[in-house]
Amino acid sequence: MNLADAGATFGDRRTPPVLVTLVLVTSISVFAMNAFIASLPTMAGDLAVSYGFMQFALSGYLGMTALMQLLIGPLSDRYGRRPVILGGLAIFVLASLGCLWAEDGATFMAFRMLQAAVASGMVLARTIVRDLLPPNEAASQIGYMTAAMALVPMFGPMYGGAMEEALGWRGTFWTYVVVGLFILVLVWTDLGETNKNRSGSLTAQFRAYPDLFRARRFWGYAATAAFASGAFFALLGGGPYVARTIFGESPAATGLYLGFVAVGYMTGNLVTGRVAARIGIDRLMFIGCLVSATGIGIGLLVNLFVVQHPIAVFGFCVFVGFGNGLTMPASTTGLLSVRPSLAGSASGLGGALMIGGGAGLSALAGALLTPDSGAAPLLALMTASAGLSVLSALYVMRRARALAAQAR
Prior knowledge:
By secondary structure, the protein is mainly α. The chain is built from 19 helices and no strands. About 80% of the residues lie in helices and about 0% in strands.
């Protein structure tokens, strides 16, 4: 079963959105997150701030995204998915204009934080899929959806690096404005409301959070997603510094190296789309975590004992991408399925935990690296995060077996 079977018709606001619309509304959230990161050193010089301050444009943005997701989920359960996504896109476009015209670091950072409103698309696109489909089929559709959007984190840093060399870093923010307006129109035209069981009040929705807090499987899925994605966010926080400062690469080359992980992510999501309905989300999630932890762990050993080279560092990050491509659709579907009536709130809370943890790891990666440290601290941090995701996935599988035994 797919979205077309659920009645999706392109251009009809009375029906669910087509898959392409969900891909684009999710992709702009990712594009906003990482397209400019190859330009962070240049932006720091242009706005007369330190690299550490400028790096907050990533880690602080992730933190703000985490906070916003706590509101996005309950708001969408109360008022619907469509108005929340439209509002988030409108705020994003206005905030992008503010970043574009900023002449100092403080002004830029204030508008950058407002850009986090675009996270409504990332949170609610997967919730919309779960509104329409049962768990295993939802995981398959989310896998296909994120496989298509995985081109964005691969393309985004490369685009931003090339844009900086051609037009300066502000050219990337002009792109945010144009693309944001296009997707705003697309959502207005195509995205019909899928939340057919809205909560009675917003306060009642927030009061439902303790029900999620008591669900141990929810915490297991959320922890798995947080630790698995933590390796990726650590790369976003430390990767530009490793490439440009430690290895002396150009902005365009930095964007290319950072795009390696997206190659693996897209491949992993395509595999998820084909096998999720057959092997189940828990097993798929565990396999993905194991691939990620093993691959980046080998990369750390190669860096320490064999060779220090950007291709060796970023090449092993492909395993993190591939593993996350298996893990993230499965873990996301799992946390949405624990309490189906609270899907929006679960998506928001789970996303907040994932992005909040990512913000911390992104900032930590930037703090651990120095010109003399090499890439080892970054690879060690990524290995630790991926290893914890394996333990979390094992906990989920153990909890599922316990519940099955109780039901017999």
